[in-house]
Every structure is written in C-alpha cells, then in structure tokens.
Write a structure and sequence with these properties.
single chain; Muramoyl-pentapeptide Carboxypeptidase, domain 2; two-stranded antiparallel ribbon; 18% strand; 5-stranded mixed sheet; 3 helices; alpha+beta; 198 residues
C-alpha cells in the first residue's frame, strides 16, 4: 500500500501532497535548470522539466503571481520541489553548505516548500538581476551593491512581491524563497510523485 495516500479517500496525505506548478492554474514560465546540462553540474539532473510544490507553498505562490501580475510581471521558475536523490547529486558535485544544503539535514526544496525564480515582463523579457541563477558568489547575495542600479531595483521588486505573499528569503541567493516554517514539512524523495523527476 502506498503510505503517501489516505486509505479512506485514496488521496495523497496533506503532509506529502505535491501540486504541479503549471498553466492554467499557475501563470508562470518554466525554465527548469536541472533538467538541462547547462547548470553548474554540467549534466541534467532531472529527466523531465516540471515544477511541484507542497499545497501550502503553492497557495503562497498563487498569491505572489497575483501581486506580480498587478505590475505586469510574471515568474520564471528555475526549480521548486527537488527530490532527495537530486539533492544528493548537487551535494556530491559541490558540497558547499552556503549554497547547497547537506542532504542529510535536508533542504526546503526537498520538502517541497522552496522555489527558485526570477521575474519576466509580460513579453517574456527576463529582468536583469545582476547575476545568473546559481551564481555561487557574493554578487548573488541580496545585500550586494556591486551590481548595477537596475538589477538592485529588480531584486528589491522580487523581494517585495515574495515577502508580501508570505515567503522568506535566503540572504545568499537572490532567487531562493521558502516557507518560514520549512522544517516542519517532511523530506521527500522522487517517489513522492506519481511520475518522478529523476
């Protein structure tokens, strides 16, 4: 029997239910970095490009989408739920706890309550954030002022939208947002999905 399902309803338990972040419900662009080889590991980690979040995080993302749309902006998602198997692959390549959570402790991503994203204009133009996604340098830190003025404004706009929607940020990565109480959610592997990412 699948332990992830409620035996009385055959629905996923609330603690592990993951929702696909896709249109039409979620008006976002997907740019799943770990489904391609041009990420920092040099190889594809996921076999398919898809994004999932725990229901509580998905609800907060919906609120952020509404706020972004009011400024004629939308989100481009680089990563969301990350199976523990993928967390191990990233850690084995770059075991740097400043940027990759030790999989033995777990990551908000492996709990389904973190998302890596940026902002697009409605025409698809990606806003300048001063660095690329997964730039593991001080230039990617929220408080870094070595980036240009426009990039600083764009980061502040992203931070404002996400904070207003109830997300917490990570100081060293302008793209990373998570639920404040992330540690109360269980760590999940690829088998948490009916069709895995790995």
């Amino acid at each position: 029997m699948d332990a992830r399902r409620d035996t009385t309803t055959n629905r996923p338990h609330e603690a592990t239910a993951l929702i696909e972040i896709a249109r039409p419900r979620f008006d976002v662009d997907l740019d799943i970095a770990y489904a391609r080889a041009d990420n920092f590991t040099g190889q594809a980690i996921y076999r398919r490009a898809a994004a999932y979040l725990h229901a509580a995080a998905a609800e907060r993302l919906e609120a952020a989408i509404v706020l972004a749309a009011s400024a004629d902006l939308r989100f481009r998602i680089f990563d969301a739920f990350r199976p523990s198997e993928a967390q191990w692959a990233l850690w084995n390549h770059t075991p740097d706890p400043d940027y990759i959570s030790d999989p033995r402790k777990g990551s908000p991503h492996t709990r389904g309550v973190a998302v890596d994203l940026t902002l697009d204009r409605s025409d698809g133009t990606v806003l300048d954030m001063g660095t690329a996604f997964d730039d593991f340098s001080a230039r990617a830190h929220h408080a870094n002022t070595a980036i240009g003025d426009a990039a600083q404004r764009n980061r502040m706009m992203l931070l404002g939208i996400m904070t207003a929607a109830g997300w917490a940020h990570y100081d060293k990565e302008w793209w990373h947002y998570q639920l404040e109480d992330a540690e109360r959610y269980p760590l999940l592997g690829d088998d948490a999905l009916d069709e895995g990412l790995m």
